[in-house]
Amino acid sequence: MSKSPNIFIPALAGTAGILGVAFAVTSRDYGADKIRALETRMGQVEAQASAASEKASVEAQRAAELELKIAEVQAAASQRVASLTAPAPAVEGTYGIGRPALDEEVAAWDVDVLPDGRGLPAGGGDVFTGEEVFAEKCASCHGDFAEGVDNWPVLAGGFDTLADEDPVKTVGSYWPYLSTAWDYIHRSMPFGEAGTLTADETYAIVAYILYSNDLVDDNFELTRENFADFNMYNMDGFTVDDRPEQEYAAWRAEPCMENCKDEVQVTMRSVFLVDTPPEGGSDSVMNPASIDGLPSFTAAGPSFIPEAAPKPAPVVQKAAVTQPAAPDLMEAGEKVFKKCKACHQVGEGAKNRSGPHLNGLIGRTMGSVDGFAYSSVFAAALDEGRIWDEAALAEFLAKPKTYMKGTKMSFSGLKKDEDLAAITAYLKSYGE
Q1: CATH class of 112-229
Q2: CATH topology match: 112-229 vs 326-429
Q3: Mean pLDDT within 7-36
Q4: 3-state DSSP call for residue 287?
Q5: Percent of the chain at pLDDT above 90?
Q6: Which InterPro entries does the entry mention (predicted)?
Q7: CB of 197 closer than 8 Å to CB of 111
Q8: Cys bridge to 308: 84, 126, 223, 280, which one at CB 3.0-4.6 A?
Q9: Cα–Cα distance, 183 to 119 (Å, whole number)
Q10: Rounded Cα distance, 14 and 21, in Å
């Protein structure tokens, strides 16, 4: 027996109601969660907006501060520029510091001397006075005749040696202007007492140095009036440096890179360029040796270079026995020899100093004293066998630089015939 479907309708209606209530409840819970999420998000956005606003406010304040600082710096710079370019403010009276320099004080600082004599003070000095002042204040370093002592510089001699391997640069041989000597001596000498020389003393010393270089006579007087008229020996030996105009442009040109060798090889060693002469030394001339059979080398040097043959001993001729000179002539000769004692010795125990000893001079071969380093001109005289006799000695002592051109001896010479006779007699009395 079947049942009618109507009996299920109430049950279905109840289920539907329950489902509806459940859906409503579920929908309500979802909406609440959604609202809470939105509220949370809204709070976060508001917090971010507040932080951004606060940050923007801080940055705006910092920008305003920087703009104010820039304006202050610009204003200070403008004031500084204005203070540097504006004329000094007018001040009534003085600050009470210092005083105007006196003419004498300005003159004391204005000490430079020009080649034409400008800047020289009034005054003058002669050779005779200069010799005395030089002996007192300068000779301890530069020698009695400006020949130099130990490592102190020589002031005289050396003419025509500037092209030599060992040139002698002195006031006479090298300096182009007399003003250089005057100015330097007046300001810097004597050593340890700079600035103590009077103008007259400086004139006298310079005159004596000129005399020692055989550039003036013994009666010469140097003054401000004749200073510019004196021309130094080497005044034309200097030229204006024109290399920037004449040479620098050529040095900066592009190098030539045409017609170059394809290969570069060593064909000669420097040792083959040296030819050792029998007497020693070396000449820079081409040696005909080739690279074939290259000699061995040791710590002693190339084996093919022979030892130099010993230099032949010079033939020394003894002085002839002469009659003793008159006592008065000997006394005069001893007095004249005082001018030579700074460099030469005679008598028992005489030794070489800045000049060779003079024992046995008359009849001796020039340049033959053992152990003394002669200049090249005396070495040449030795090779020629030249002898010191009375005539040669007198001629030499009268004009040393003329008789023996290139000598390093700075003595200017004896001017009086009686002095030459006296010194000759005196030296003749000292044998070997």
Answers
A1: mainly alpha
A2: yes
A3: 60
A4: coil
A5: 21
A6: Cyt_c-like_dom (IPR009056), Cyt_c-like_dom_sf (IPR036909), Cyt_c_1A/1B (IPR002327)
A7: no
A8: 280
A9: 9
A10: 11
pTM: 0.43
Strands 283-284 and 124-126: unpaired
pLDDT at 419: 85
What is residue 303's predicted lDDT score, i.e. its pLDDT? Answer: 46
Q: How far lies 226's CA from each of 117, 203, 218, in Å? A: 9, 11, 16
Taking Cα atoms as reference points, which of 147, 154, 134, 140 lies closest to residue 203?
Answer: 134
Burial class (CB in 10 A: 0-12, 13-18, 19+), 387: middle
DSSP symbols for 329-393? HHHHHHHHHTTTTTT---STT---SSS---TT-TTPBTT--TT----HHHHHHHHHT-B--HHHH
Encoded amino acid at 366, one letter: M
Mean pLDDT for the stretch of residues 143-164: 87
The model's pLDDT over 225-253, given as tens digits with 9 standing for 90+, comes to 999 999 999 999 988 888 888 887 777 77
Q: What is the mean pLDDT of residues 12-21?
A: 57
What CATH architecture applies to the domain 326-429? Answer: Orthogonal Bundle (1.10)
Enter the DSSP assignment of 323. Answer: P
168-227 pLDDT, tens digit per residue, is 999 999 999 999 999 999 999 998 899 899 999 999 999 999 999 989 998 999 999 999
Q: Exposed (0-12), middle (13-18) or buried (19+): which is 411, by Cβ within 10 Å?
A: buried
CA distance 148 to 30: 120
Helix (H, G, I), strand (E, B) or coil at 12: helix
133 phi, psi to nearest 5 deg: -65, -40
pLDDT score, position 297:
47
Q: What is the tens place of the pLDDT at every residue in 113-133?
A: 999 999 999 999 999 999 999
Distance of alpha carbon 283 from alpha carbon 408, whole angstroms = 24
Q: What are the residue boundaries of the structural domains of the chain, listed by start?
A: 22-72, 112-229, 326-429
Report DSSP letters for 46-100, one per residue: HHHHHHHHHHHHHHHHHHHHHHHHHHHHHHHHHHHHHHHHSPPPP-SS--S---P
Q: Which helix (H) or strand (E) holds 29?
A: helix 9-85
The secondary element (H helix, E strand) that includes residue 11 is helix 9-85
